[in-house]
């Protein structure tokens, strides 16, 4: 009983860290540019397919394939930001929603066209499969690897935002765009770079997540709610908020599906509606 | 300009309503598609009230459509197949659900509203999926048997009754909605749309009006759902699907928000396009759908109605 509980908790944490890794870019886009991007999952899917193609057609090993996923999503994200997203920063939220639903549909059709509707398989390298015995518990090696990756990514991100000059520019732009422009910060460039970085992290998450979340063309739609949830519940524009929200969400989802499978995903949506009722601005609101 | 807008019909409106009547005689083989268009139009009309007039972004409007569909479907399945009472019951259930959830909606801003409507829609989808003993689950609810309208006109295979019934319901509800948006209440909704913060200053309660319009919109969506259940005598679980909510939004913005007619026009164009393109390849259809949305947002924000009105203005100016 206790072991299964710890196992569920562990799986939930791994799942939650993955959600966090994918959603953090969305949190920044919403916090920084006040842009509702429903197509964020498409960048994760892109990363997933990039990794799959790199591994199966080009014979690249798993770890470099993750780097490729990161790079491809980052570049495509940056390009789209320059060409398309930028035009809609000042548009109404409705326009952003419609526009990004359109992009999502296009990404689904494009993925189906190139890769077919089936789930993509992934072959994990030997050293990441199997179980690890820790304190009498059997923990999946890949799950541990996932959590470790996300811890590293979070630390790097926190360092970037809290300690570097670029991070200071990002924080200043989030807090007050006009004043930042006035101080000579190139807010447009800050936007582009953060958007590309967020897309890259989503791509990394998508590639890492093939084994956990699966990868098929409906990915952006299937998980859209989860990503939005992490950001809306956690509070846009922070790192800590989405992290807490993603972990709560991951644990609740895995536990719900394990203990009360007949209720299915119902629990998550109920938790979300309740959380949004009590924290309309997210768990961790930004200082204003 | 101080007087209220009148309810007088312009010649464009009369001409518009003659189109579906003409279609009945001209295209007797496409009446099933015709009823689908009319139902989608009614559904789009319900979203126009809350999106076009009250600027509430909803990604889960299918929740009310589905509630209406299951209400009418279940009633008819258990022997209460009289069409009009089914419509009323569906409207009542959907409106009740709309009224209850509206209090969650009015609390938040755009993002929260979007999430809450999306969440409610998904919750109902899951609920219908799990309660398969009542709803039939993924197999859908079959065995919906409709009684004859007025005890005379049965829902036959030729689709004539279904078409005329849908058209009549659409026309009646449309008139109600048209009167509503031209009433002082409708004007105050426009006021909220243009400047939500200023409305309280002139003594209007924003909250109460949003609750009211959301409830009405939900009720009309319920009627649309009920029409679908009654005319097809079947309810699939996709009535609650996200795809339905998303396509609904596309129809509405394609036609143009905030005119009431936009939804009807958008539904017609959308359904005809879908009928044509989806037959070629359903996957490509989704691509074109997405592209259409992107292009509308970037270049044609007013939709078809916006374009038509601009055209009308230009013609008037050139003739004057």
Q: How would you describe what is shown here?
A:
- The complex is a heterodimer of chains A (288) and B (320).
- Chain A is built from 12 helices and 2 strands, in the order H-H-H-H-E-E-H-H-H-H-H-H-H-H.
- Chain A is mainly α and 288 residues long.
- Chain A has a two-stranded antiparallel sheet.
- In chain A, helix 1 packs antiparallel against helix 8 (187-208).
- The mean pLDDT of chain A is 86.
- With 320 residues, chain B is mostly helical.
- Chain B has one domain.
- Chain B is globular, with a radius of gyration of 19 Å.
If helices are DSSP runs of H or I spanning 4 or more residues, what is the number of helices of chain B? 13
Q: Beta-strand level of the residues of chain A, as a percent range?
A: under 5%
Give the overall silhouette of chain A: globular
Radius of gyration of chain A: 19 Å
Along the chain, the helix and strand elements of chain A come as HHHHEEHHHHHHHH
What kind of sheet is the major sheet of chain B? none
In round numbers, the mean pLDDT of chain B is 87
User: What's the oligomerization state?
Assistant: heterodimer
Number of helices of chain A: 12
Q: Which word captures the global form of chain B?
A: globular
